[in-house]
Amino acid sequence: MKKVVWTIEERCKQCYTCIRECPAKAIKVEKGQAEVIEERCIGCGHCVRVCTQKAKAVLNSVQATLVFLTQEKPVAALLAPSFPAAYSHIDPEKIVGALRECGFKVVIEVAFGADLINQEIAKLAKTSTQHQWQGTKRPIIASSCPAVVNYIEKYVPDLIDNIMPTVSPMVAAGRAVRRIYGSDMRLVFIGPCVAKKMEIQNSEVSDAVDEVLTFQEMEQLFNDLHVNPEEAMPSWFDPPHPFLGRIYPISGGLIRSSGLPYDLMDNEIIMAEGKQHVLNVLECVQNGEIKAQVVDLLFCEGCINGPFIDQNTNYFTRKQKIVEYAETRRERSNYAEWAQYLERCKSIKIDRSYHRQEIHSVRVPEGKIKEIFAQINKFSKDDELNCGACGYTTCRDYARAVHQGLAEREMCLPFLIENLKKTKFELQDSLRELAETQEMLIQHEKLASVGQLAAGVAHEVNNPLGSIMLYAHLILKELGEQNEHSGDLKFIMEEAKRCQKIVAGLLNFSRQGQLNLRNHRLQDIVSKMVEVISKQTLFRDITINVDIDENLDEIEIDSDQLYQVFLNLAVNAAEAMPDGGTLTISASTDEKKEKLTIQISDTGVGIKPENFNKLFTPFFTTKQIGKGTGLGLAIVYGIIKMHRGNVVVKSEVNKGTTFTIMLPLQTHVVTNEILLQ
Ligand code: ADP
Ligand code: MG
Predict the structure, then answer these.
(1) Measuring from atom 14 of ligand 1, which residue has the nearest CA?
(2) Closest ligand 1 atom to Cα of 568
(3) Which of 84, 268, 365, 650 would bridge with 325, disulfide CB 3.0–4.6 Å?
(4) pLDDT surpasses 70 at 8
(5) How far apart, in Å, are the Cα atoms of 248 and each of 122, 173, 258, 296, 329?
(6) How distant is the alpha carbon of residue 650 from its chain centre?
(7) Across residues 211-240, what is the average pLDDT?
C-alpha cells in the first residue's frame, strides 16, 4: 500500500496539534518529530488541515494524471458532488470546460454513483427493519465515508457487520463509467478527501478508479497545464447525470436522496458529522445504546469541510451552494434518461464486504502507568492535570502512549516547565558556587604570595633575633641583676621574645612550622581549651556551648596547633562580643566519614563585607594598636592548610560570625610540603 499521509520532518515544530486532532491516535512522536503510523492511519486528513506549519504531506497524484493525459487511452474525470462548495466562485460549467481543456475526454458527476447506491440502501433498510424488530441486529452504518469505514475496520471491528455492504459512490460511479464508456479508460476521481486515496488501493474496489486527486491537486493540474478555469469555455457533464445523489456530501444527504423516511420523532435514522460526534455515535452503537435503523456518518462535517475544501468561505455558505446546485440541476433533470441509465447499470457490482483490520489496544498495567508518571513527576491524582498539551486528552492516555512507544517524556509540558525552572535554579546555584570558588582561589593565591614573603622575612629575622636574645642574656649575666642597665636588657629580651612570637606566627601562616601528628579526640582538645578560657575575664559575660558528637572517632592531628586554632578563634569571638553573647563550638562528620566539620560561632558584631578578603592576611586587624596583631587568623589559616583542610567564614554585621573548618579524615597529612598550594 502506498503511504497516503506523512510528516515533512524539517517543518514539524512539536506543537502536538496533529496528535490532539487525530481520532485514531495514529501519530508517533520520536525525537520530537510527529510521524504518521501508516497502519493506524484512517486517512481522515485532520492532521493535514490543523498543521499550521504545513508539515503533513499527502500523496500527490498530479504527475500520474499528467502521464495519463499524454497517453492514448481516454481519461475520464469523476468530479465529487462537493465540487460546487469547493469552487463557489466559479461557474460549474467552467470547471467542466477547464477539465476538458486539460484533456479529459469524459467528465462525470460522481453523484450518479450515489444514486446507484441509494437504490440498494432503500432495499437494505427494509430488511434491517425486520431484523430490528426481532431485536437481533444493530443499525446499518452508511459506508459512503471511507474515513468512517477505515475507523470501524481498525478500531471498532465489532461493528464490521453493521457497515452497509455497499461500495462508495466513487466506486459505483467508476464502474458505471466503465460500463457506459468502455473498460479501457483511465479514471481520475477529483474530490475533497484524503481517505479516497486509501480506498482505491483496496483490492476489492481497485478496478473502479485509477487515481484520486484532491481539489488542490486539480488546481495544480490546471496550473501545470496553464488552464484558467475562470476563462474556460463553459461545458456540461457527460451522462449519466445524477438526480438526488448531488446532496450526498452534506449531512442528511444520504437519507434525503435515498428516500428513507426521516422523522425526528421516531429515532429510526441518526445522522452525525464531525470527528467527535462520529466517535460518540460509534461508541453508542457499540454499547447498544442506539437502536436506530440507519446511521449516516461523515467524518468531516460533511464532505464540504474536509482538508482540501477552500476554508475561506463560510461552512453554511458552502452547504447552501450544494443545495442550490442540486436544486437548479434537479429542475433541469431528465427523469426518463436517468432511469434508463440506472437500468443500464443495474448489474454493476454495488455490494462489498468490509474486513477487520483490528489495531489491538494494548492493556497497560497500572504499575507501568505509575512508573511513567513517576518519570514526569506525577505522584498523586492531583498531579494528573489532564491539560492536553501533549495532544492526549488525559495524562493516563498519554502514559499509555509512552508505554507503546508513541509518545515521549518531553511532551509533558508541566514536566518540561518544572524541569526548566529546576535547571535555571541549578544553573544559578552552579554560577554562584563557581563565583565563590573563583573568589576563594584568588584569595588563596594572594595568601600564598604573602606567605612566601612572610616565610622569607621570618627566616631572615629569626637568626638575628636569636643573636640579640643570646647577647642580651650574656650581658645581663655578666653585669648582674643589680646593674643599672639590667632593666634595659630585660626590656630588649622581652621585645625580642615578642618578635620571636610574631616570627613563629608568620612561619605558621606560611606553613613552615612542624606538625606533630598523633591520634587525638577532638572533644579533649576543645574541652581543655574551654576550661582555660572560661576562667579568663575576656569570657566573663559569654555563654559557651559545646556541641560535639561524643562518638567522633579519633583524628590524626597536631593537638597543640589545633588548640592554638580554637583558641585564636575563641578569642576573636569573645573580642567581637564586648557586651557578652554566646560562643558555640560544634563538630560533626559527613555520612561517608570523609570530612570533619568544626564550627565556631559567635553572636558578636560581625565582619563588614569589605573586610572579608583581608581576614587571613597577616597583620590585618581592625583592633586598636597594641590590642590586635592581626596574626590570629593568619595562623589559623596556616595550621588548617598544613592539615590539608580548609577554613571559611560567614558573617552578618551585628548578628554574628561563624568560622567553619573542614579537615579531611582519610588522607595523611604531610608536613613541610611545598608552600601554600
Ligand atoms: P586580631 O584579632 O589580632 O585583630 P586576627 O587575625 O585574629 O587578628 O583577626 C583579624 C581581624 O578579623 C580582626 O581584627 C577582626 O576585625 C576580624 N575578626 C576575626 N574574627 C572575628 C569575629 N569572630 N567577629 C568579628 N570580627 C572578627
Ligand atoms: Mg585575633
Answers:
(1) 621
(2) 7
(3) 84
(4) yes
(5) 15, 13, 9, 11, 14
(6) 40
(7) 95
Give the ligand whose atoms come closest to the C-alpha of residue 659: 1
Q: CA torsion 210→153→144→5, rounded to 10°?
A: -50
Concatenated DSSP letters of 266-292: T--EEEEESHHHHHHHHHHHHHT----
What pLDDT score was predicted for residue 10?
85
Give Cα separations from 610 to 286, 637, 651, 652 (angstroms): 79, 19, 12, 12
**Nine-digit cell string for 79:** 468530479
Averaged pLDDT, 175-202: 94
Strand pairing of 294-298 and 269-273?
A: parallel
Nearest CA to 358 out of 153, 541, 148, 562 is that of 153
Q: Taking all residues of the chain, what is their mean pLDDT, rounded to a whole number?
A: 87
- State what percent of residues in the chain have pLDDT above 70: 93
Amino acid residing at 486: S
Among 621, 625, 635, 657, say which to mutate for ligand 1: greatest number of ligand atoms within 8 Å of CB.
621
Mutate to test the pocket of ligand 1, among 577, 633, 635 (most ligand atoms within 8 A of CB): 633
Pocket of ligand 1 (CB under 6 A): 568, 572-573, 576, 602, 604-607, 615, 620-623, 628-634, 657
CA–CA dist 109, 99 (Å, integer) = 12
Q: Are 118 and 168 within 8 A, CB to CB?
A: no
* Region of poorest pLDDT, from 32-36, 76-80, 197-201: 32-36
Which atom in ligand 1 lies closest to the alpha carbon of residue 600? 23
Domains parsed from the chain with CATH numbers: 60-344 (no CATH), 423-511 (1.10.287.130), 513-677 (3.30.565.10)
Report whether 173 contacts 112 (CB < 8 A). yes
Residues 6+ apart with CB under 8 A from 533: 539, 544, 567, 570, 571, 574
Which DSSP letter does residue 63 get?
H
Closest ligand 1 atom to residue 633 Cα is 6
Query: Are 391 and 18 a contacting pair, CB within 8 Å?
Result: yes
In the reported structure, the alpha carbon of residue 75 is separated from the centroid of ligand 1 by a whole-number distance in angstroms of 101
CA of 656 to the centre of ligand 1 (A): 12
**b/e burial code for range 609-632 (CB count within 10 A of at least 16 → b):** eeeeebbbbbebeeeeeeebbbbb
Ligand nearest 649 Cα, by number?
1
Paired strand residues for 106: 76
CA of 630, closest atom in ligand 1: 8
Which atom of ligand 1 lies closest to the CA of 602?
23
**Distance from residue 663's CA to the centre of ligand 1 (Å):** 22
The pLDDT of residue 127 is: 66
- Contacts of 1 by beta carbon, 8 Å cutoff, 6+ apart: 38, 198, 201
pLDDT at 672: 39
585-605, pLDDT tens digit by residue?
Answer: 999 998 888 899 999 999 999
Q: Which three cell numbers stand for residue 500?
A: 620571636
Query: Rounded distance, CA 367 to CA 30, Å?
Result: 24
Residue to mutate (ligand 1; options 572, 583, 623; most atoms within 8 A of CB)? 572
Ligand 1 atom 21: the closest Cα is on which residue? 572
Task: Return the residue matching grid coordinates 612550622.
Answer: 513
Nearest atom (ligand 1) to Cα of 605: 25
Looking at the CA of 573, name the nearest ligand.
1
Confidence of residue 267 (pLDDT cuts 50, 70, 90): low
| Percent helix / strand / coil, the chain, rounded to 5 | 50, 15, 40
pTM, to two decimals: 0.63
